[in-house]
């Protein structure tokens, strides 16, 4: 039987964004996906890796953050990197 979970999806998303920012120092653009796993949550956070002029040429990346049931970061990794104009094809 699965234990009751007190964290809401929006709270988990905010926690993931904050933790990815603290680890990378890169400005988050937003959450691109969020799903429950057997051990917690998996959240994809899009960040600006490199600002360019014009901003449509910025380099973006998606980091996958795995959080446990309490919202603590278990792991993270960059799963994609692309120019803003190209879009994420993942």
Automatic annotation (TrEMBL):
InterPro entries noted in UniProt: Gas-vesicle_GvpO (IPR008634)
Superkingdom: Bacteria
Stated name of the protein: Gas vesicle protein
């Amino acid at each position: 039987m699965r234990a009751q979970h007190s964290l809401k999806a929006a709270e988990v998303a905010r926690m993931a964004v904050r933790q990815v920012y603290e680890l990378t120092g890169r400005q988050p653009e937003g959450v691109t996906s969020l799903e429950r796993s057997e051990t917690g949550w998996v959240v994809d956070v899009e960040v600006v890796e490199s600002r360019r002029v014009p901003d449509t040429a910025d380099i973006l990346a998606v980091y996958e953050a795995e959080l446990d049931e309490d919202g603590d970061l278990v792991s993270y990794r960059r799963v994609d990197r692309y120019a803003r104009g190209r879009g994420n094809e993942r």
